[in-house]
Design brief:
142 residues, mainly alpha, 2 domains
C-alpha cells in the first residue's frame, strides 16, 4: 500500500511540476523586447502621470523608481523575482536617464520592489500607471 501511495504521489508531483513550469515560463516571458520602445513607454508614463495630476520630472528619484519597476515587468520580469536583468537593458535605461549610472539602475530596481511590496499607495500608483501603459500597448497590437 505504501508503494502505491508513493507512486501516486510522484505522479501528482510531476503533474503539478509541469503546471508550475508552464506558469513560470508565462510569467517570465517579457512583454516587450525592443529597447527602442523605452522612450515611447516613458512618454506614456509621463502622460499617465499628467492625467493623475502629477508633473512628470525625469530627474525625480521617486518617478524614476516607479518607471523602472514597470520597465522590469515589461522587459525583464525575472529581475523582479531575484533573477538577472535582460542583457543590455540597463544600458538602454541609462540612455533615457542620462544622469544615473548602471549600478544605480540595479539598486533602484531593488528599492522600488521593496516600496511596491511595502507601501499600498506606491502599489496603487504603479498598478494604475502599468494598467494604462498596458492599454496603450494593446492598442498598438490591434
Amino acid at each position: 500500500m505504501k508503494l502505491l501511495r508513493e507512486i501516486e504521489e510522484l505522479a501528482a508531483v510531476r503533474i503539478e511540476k509541469d503546471r508550475l513550469d508552464k506558469e513560470e515560463k508565462r510569467l517570465l516571458t517579457p512583454i516587450l523586447s525592443d529597447y527602442s520602445m523605452i522612450p515611447k513607454v516613458y512618454g506614456w508614463f509621463s502622460e499617465v502621470l499628467t492625467g493623475m495630476g502629477i508633473t512628470p520630472d525625469i530627474k525625480s528619484d521617486s518617478q524614476r523608481k516607479k518607471f523602472l519597476l514597470i520597465i522590469m515587468k515589461l522587459y525583464s520580469p525575472q529581475r523582479l523575482s531575484g533573477g538577472r536583468m535582460q542583457p543590455f537593458l540597463r544600458k538602454a535605461i541609462q540612455k533615457l536617464f542620462s544622469n544615473i549610472s548602471a549600478p544605480i539602475v540595479s539598486i533602484d530596481t531593488g528599492k522600488v520592489l521593496f516600496y511596491y511590496k511595502t507601501y499600498e499607495s506606491d502599489r496603487k500608483t504603479i498598478d494604475e500607471i502599468y494598467d494604462k501603459i498596458m492599454g496603450k500597448l494593446s492598442s498598438l497590437k490591434d
